[in-house]
Design brief:
Oligomer: single chain
Radius of gyration: 16 Å
Distance between the termini: 27 Å
Shape: globular
Helix content: 10-25%
Number of strands: 17
């Protein structure tokens, strides 16, 4: 993985109109799931002005990489969230979307995304509570290659932008409003591997 002029050279660049001003000295990487059908469909939505949302990068389940705006540009992925006194985290963070439908429910003996109307085999689902607690629910698994690519890219981001001090789940900065990256993503393990520390 390599970054040049704010862009991951391995990614397909699909520019979004949904962005703000310059992003200087990012402090956080915020991990999301798309809750969409595919990396491509999620990219199309995040490039639509009607969505009023974007991210810097989408990582597909098959490791397709789509970059929507430069890492030096503010993307609209964190809303007006506040973290440790920083209001409006878009101005302080890089947003990475993982292609994943997220939460699924048991319907007629199958796991189904109620929002997408898609069924998933048992082998693609883990039953777990959300990291912040609550009941055991079904979550679509991330592919091992997708998770490895996320780690490789985030290592490159930390090397390129030494002001980055932590990785956060979207749910951490929007408690009660967001669930991503959900119960199938081991955020503490990811942070430990990325920064070499236990939280």
């Amino acid at each position: 993985m390599a970054i040049k002029d704010g862009k991951l050279i391995e990614a397909t660049y699909q520019p979004t109109p949904n962005h703000g001003g310059p992003l200087k000295d990012p402090q956080y990487i915020i991990v999301h799931y798309t809750a969409g059908r595919s990396a491509g469909s999620s990219a199309r939505w995040l490039c639509d002005p009607k969505s009023r949302a974007s991210a810097h990068l989408i990582i597909g389940r098959d490791c397709t990489l789509i970059q929507l705006c430069s890492f030096g540009t503010v993307a609209w992925h964190a809303g007006e969230s506040e973290w440790k006194g920083l209001h409006g985290l878009n101005k302080f963070s890089i947003g990475v979307e993982l292609d994943n439908p997220g939460l699924v429910s048991r319907v007629n003996g199958r796991w189904r995304s109620l929002t997408l109307g898609i069924d998933y085999p048992d082998s693609d689902v883990v039953e777990a509570p959300h990291p912040r607690g609550g009941p055991v629910r079904g979550w679509v698994l991330y592919s091992p290659a997708q998770l490895q690519m996320l780690e490789d890219i985030c290592r490159e981001l930390v090397a390129e932008y030494p002001t980055i001090q932590d990785a956060l789940g979207h749910w951490e900065i929007a408690p009660g409003r967001k669930l991503d990256p959900g119960g199938a993503f081991e955020l503490d393990v990811f942070r430990s591997r990325l920064f070499g520390r236990a939280d």
